[in-house]
Specification:
Layout: E1 20-25, E2 43-54, E3 61-69, E4 72-81, E5 88-89, E6 99-106, E7 109-114, E8 124-129, E9 134-138, E10 142-157, E11 164-177, E12 180-193, H1 203-208, E13 209-219, E14 224-232, E15 237-243, E16 248-251, E17 254-260, E18 266-273, E19 276-282, E20 301-309, E21 316-325, H2 327-333, E22 335-338
Parallel strand pairs: 17-22
Antiparallel strand pairs: 1-10, 2-3, 2-12, 3-4, 4-5, 4-6, 6-7, 7-8, 8-9, 9-10, 10-11, 11-12, 13-14, 13-21, 14-15, 15-16, 17-18, 18-19, 19-20, 20-21
Length: 341
């Protein structure tokens, strides 16, 4: 439940300090592929990202981030982390397909397919069956498929200059990455922005977003938690959590406390929402695995971890919790504790 905000200031026309509206929505396989705008906003881009653990080697992890839309495959960043080490960029990522695609429905599936390959041997495809079964393929690099967990999570910013809708969908998957049999999770995210806008020139990228983590955690008893936390300047804040036991909450009243190392990576983050505290921690005690920082001005810092409700005593068996921060913005809006790297 949202609290009443008294003495709310008068704001510029159509601007509400990046106030969010959030909640859960039913998944439709056509979402993101049918070419329909959402609340008047076009779909500008989609993201696939996740991490996968080798079935044969303990704590050998892979992580991937895909940037695409229904008309084109734009980039793939693939990473590999040996046990106890940070992620390293896999140079073979440049073999991924970059070029034209078509999106829509084919053979009872909604999705995106590259324009140059035969239907039975796609260089790149992401497709979804009516029951939510999902297949992500980057020929010679990554080929995973699995089932959807939970409902879609959606956050909306109604703003005259910088409107945004962000929707996340969780998939539990298995398959192959770089020839290794793997299991893990990935998210399919949909990003609606104003006409002609791109994420890297929005206020969100340049000055608003401080911290963002979308996560899934599975436990030894078969239960799971799925959620989405983000926090930044003004009223840009959202907490969405759904649990396999039926519990869920959606709130925009959120506070954040972060432990950061001397390289500006997160070691732990605590999210305070609706009288609950949820904590993101690194996957391993030494703080790994972190990802290399891109050579782009203002680029985020990424690392992988685990999210659990404080007080949760069940052992976790699987996790995807891709932490993204913009250090300068985060340090301006959140409580920061410095810890040794």
């Amino acid at each position: 439940m949202q609290s009443i905000r008294r003495h709310e200031p008068i704001r510029p026309w159509g601007r509400y300090d990046f106030q969010t509206v959030n909640g859960f929505v039913v998944a439709e396989p056509s979402f993101g592929f049918a070419g329909r705008p959402l609340h008047g906003l076009p779909l500008q881009t989609q993201w696939l990202y996740g991490s996968f653990r080798s079935k044969a080697r303990d704590n050998l992890y892979f992580a991937g981030l895909k940037h695409y839309n229904p008309t084109g495959s734009l980039s793939l960043q693939l990473y590999r982390a040996e046990p106890g080490d940070d992620f390293k960029y896999v140079k073979d990522s440049n073999r991924s397909y970059r070029g034209g695609c078509y999106g829509g429905r084919r053979e009872a599936r909604w999705g995106v397919w590259d324009l140059v390959s035969s239907p039975d041997d796609q260089w790149f495809t992401l497709n979804v069956e009516d029951d939510g079964a999902t297949h992500w393929r980057e020929r010679g690099l990554l080929d995973v498929q699995g089932v959807q967990l939970g409902d879609l999570m959606q956050s909306v910013v109604l703003d005259a200059e910088s409107p945004m809708i962000y929707t996340s969908r969780c998939i539990q998957a298995e398959g192959e990455v770089l020839g290794e049999e793997v299991e893990g999770f990935f998210f399919q995210d949909f990003h609606h922005l104003g006409y002609g806008q791109d994420w890297m020139v929005t206020e969100f990228f340049n000055s608003v977003q401080g911290i963002w983590v979308v996560f899934v955690t599975t436990y030894a008893d078969g239960g799971w938690d799925i959620g989405n936390f983000f926090f930044g300047r003004g009223r840009f804040a959202s907490a969405l959590v759904q649990r396999s036991n039926g519990e869920r909450f959606a709130s925009t009243e959120l506070d954040v406390e972060v432990d950061m190392d001397d390289r500006d990576f997160v070691r732990a983050a605590r999210f305070f929402a609706d009288d609950e505290v949820w904590e993101w921690t690194t996957r391993f005690p030494d703080g790994t695995p972190r990802m290399p920082v891109m050579n782009v001005v203002g680029s985020p810092h990424w690392n992988e971890g685990v999210v659990r409700k404080v007080g949760e005593d069940r052992p976790w068996v699987g996790s995807e919790a891709w932490m993204e921060i913009y250090p300068s913005t985060l340090q301006a809006v959140a409580t920061i504790n410095r810890v040794s790297a």
